[in-house]
## 1
Amino acid sequence: MNCQDFETLLVDLARQQPVNAGLRERALVHIEVCAGCAARFASERALTAELRALAASLEAAQAPPGLEAALRAAFRGQRAKPAVMWPWWRGAMPIAASFVILVAGAVALLRRAPAPELAPAASQELATEFIPLVYENDVLPAENVQIVRVKLPRTALVSFGLPINEDRAGESVKADVLLGDDGVARAIRFVRQY
Amino acid sequence: MSEPDPSDKDLLRRMMAGDEDAFTALYRRRQAGVYRFALQMSGSEAIAEDVTQEVFLALMREASDYDPARGSLAAYLYGMARHQVLRCLRRQRPEASLAAVAEPARGGDDPFDDLTRRQNIDAVRGAVLALPAHYREAVVLCDLHEMNYAEAAAALGCALGTVRSRLYRARELLAARLGALRQAQPARPIVNPARCLI
């Protein structure tokens, strides 16, 4: 082994890291005949000892006891938090995105009709709030919007975190879609008729 | 016969299912390492506390992001701690030294030996804190936390060879700095016990 080979093993040897037994043996033989490498090895071992002393000096250091209580409270708070407190619709956005394509298709067909059915404020209807289909920042405040009523598979409710009666999963559900100038759906609300 | 301690993976799975005791067990097992890493990286107890809090809050929120195929949970937590520490250090330069949190004095037979040992530790601590962050984190993980190269690489999100080369270079810088400090310091005073009695 020459000095260059020894140099590649120096730090691992000084830190007592696993090194191939044959290589270790040859390295130890090398420092017996090379004063320069022996001095480098001694210096690296001294540094390792100093770093271990530093590590030992902070062995007992740990986070303040109060932090555990605070984190446990946060954990409980997180578990207890109702789903509606979180902007859940953002999590549903990827699912909703594919669903928007379906809505757009239905809307395109309706637009060909002479008078699209607008959402009536009929007393026999119960509607959810409008659920954004785009991020709020993407909705322009002065934008002209149009409401179009469509029929969708009832399973669409699930995409928006709304409950579904599984017995009626095969049926359709009515929805009002808020369309922007560009024809892209901005928001949707589901309507139940009595 | 007592049951073996549950693995990190088991605790994490239970934690994700809402088990507070599992979260507490995981916290108790891993907080000291995260706290010490942040302390050794920043030199500030306040940053270390903040980082520890942020790491475990993030674990609550984003536990599903952890991928066991990419390393141990410990490495994942160190990785999060590293990001938090670097963010804190970018915002503020640490002013407090670790002298405030240094080990308590141990009673020894020779007060000078004790003093010298503490001065040595302070010098090494200062030299580690003076390293550039990417070298410092290699020293902290590999030398102070005795992680192997693979674990350190997982925590740092870099190749194993990068950890090796950074550690090598970091130790060169440390040796040079400590050597310069010792040359500049006066030698230990020779005390004549007879004079102390006068």
## 2
Amino acid sequence: MIKSIKSLIFVGLASLALVACSQSGGGAGSKKSKTLENTKKAGFVKCGVSQGLPGFSNADASGNWTGIDVDVCRAVAAAVLGDADKVKYTPLSAKERFTALTSGEIDVLARNTTWTLSRDADIGLTFVGVNFYDGQGFMVRKNSGINSVKDFKNGISACTNTGTTTELNMRDFFNSNNISYEPIAFEKADEVVQAYDAGRCDTYTTDKSGLAAQRTKMSNPDEHKVLPETISKEPLGPVVRQGDSVWEDIVRWSLNVMIEAEEYGVNSSNASSLKDSDNPQIKRLVGSEGELGAAFGLDNEWSLRIIEQVGNYGEIYKKHIADTGIMPNRGPNELWTKGGLLYVAPAR
Amino acid sequence: MNLKKFSIDFKNKKKLIPQVLTLAFIISVIAYFSYNAQVNMGNRGISFGYGFLSQESSFDITFSMIDYDGSYSYGRAFLVGLLNTLLVSVIGIVFCTILGVTIGIGRLSQNYLIAKTAEWYVEIFRNIPLLLQIFFWYYGALRLLPLPENAMNFNDISYLTIKGWYVPKFIWTNFSIFFSSVLISIIAIFFVRKYGKTQREQFGKHIPVGIISILILILLPSTTFLIGGVTLSFDYPELYKLTPTVYNFRGGVSIIPELISLALALSMYTATFVAENVRAGIQGVGKGQKEAAASIGLTRGQILKLVVMPQALRIIIPPTTNQYLNLTKNSSLAAAIAYPDIVLVFAGTALMQTGRAIEIISITMGTYLFLSLTISILMNSYNKKMAIKEK
């Protein structure tokens, strides 16, 4: 009798354990993302941005951040938390950006970071897309008489930021053209601009979007010009930590959805009115068809919120980069249907 | 003897236990953090290892004392940064010592103007933070220098511009012969001084050792020019056109403004502390010593050199060792003005390019520790030599 009671108790406990396991494991469609849970608990997305680059991430006098990198984080906040303004911005220098991400201080790094092999594979990070196709260029004074990089001669001094792909590309360029040069590398972008402005160096090199943005900070912007040649590829995009594939997917598809929305003509003003559109892909983008949100553990209005609260890629580009005069010509940052490089996987 | 050792151990067993416990606690804290780092780095796919030091660095450095470009390894870049740190530290230590001793003695001068100037110098340069002083010299003073076409001209031999201080380059032939002649003359001076000391102590004869030393140092290396086949020519910096409107200098050696401003700021800041140490040392020598020396007819200069300074040095050296170590570590502020020292090159650029924060920071910390320990060992041995020999 005691033996059977013992076995009964044993079976009862075992089944309880099994049920408990399945409950915790199966809960929300078995999509475990520690970063997603922590973000929901904290109530804001932890976003790493630059220390002030007009057009990408820049804070105005009252502390409001704007820019296309800022909008990536706002899209993630709109998708995950329902409100695009629930973001905490951490300005980071080039030195701190990757360690801040790997250590968990931030969850998304949207800091005009170039996607390279060594950064993707070697330091525990994953790039989730490109939100700006750029290239490296040179800035010189208009009265220097230099009209092209072919006019560079031995002994030229070039200012740039230390620890960036710019420094490496600069070396490759001068070496392959057999020009001896003097590299002067500062940590902060402001110091580089000041050194070039004062005449310490003959040329200033960084991504062309950076050149255009920093020229506005110089004492006499009209005295400088950007040389026509582009000496490297700089695909700039958001980065997340390795190891949390659900969070990775959320950030990737938040960006993709913004680009695809422009492709289908969905923007922040007409998004909700297109819920009964004839085009099934538009219906999927605004969440009136399909169960795409469940793939990440989100509700179905996630993409609608992104488009309504942040906008599609065209709106973002126009507001931050074209209308501010930084780069009115979209160049490679145009949809593939219009001859540009923006071609993203379909959200379906 | 052995029994004695054992009985002492037994008596101190009570004192041993807390020591063992503290040691175990420290070891466990270090072990916990190492294990924690290891687990978390493994989780995030970050590898740990020093193998990256042999990888190609792919970045150039503005100023390097040895051959270096981007095709060399990260280990070589580390060496370049280390040599640059040593260069600015040595220059700083030499100049701050000369300046500090002068100002320290000057503050005790009978001349009101000299004493007050020294006092004002110390008060001003001691109380402004070092970083601000570096910024002043770099952004405030050297940034305002003229462009190469309007350079400050020193007799057409050297030029001072915003891009640097251009001085003639020394071109030697048979430099090794010249170098060995300098070494030989130093050894000769050493023997002359020893001879002069024994003569003075045993017979009271005063030999002009200083003048003889200087003569040897000048004459011996000069003879190598005549008979050793050593020649010296100069490569003067000259202006040329980089583009129709931009000028630059070619030839000669360029001393970058970053190095000049860092060395200036470090020397002037640390000199104030050395000056105060020197003043404390001199004032710490008993008044009776100075009065006794005056009473046997020594001049003020002789009192300072023969009686006061040897005793004052014992008081001056330990705190001055501190200041030398501070100067070496403060040279890491070079990162703020783009001087390629070890912090900017290794713990800055190399860290950003490879992402290996823990390895690089540990190497940098170890390097500074090694430098500081070397300086303190050297200064402590000098201090022991100066100490009163107890009979």
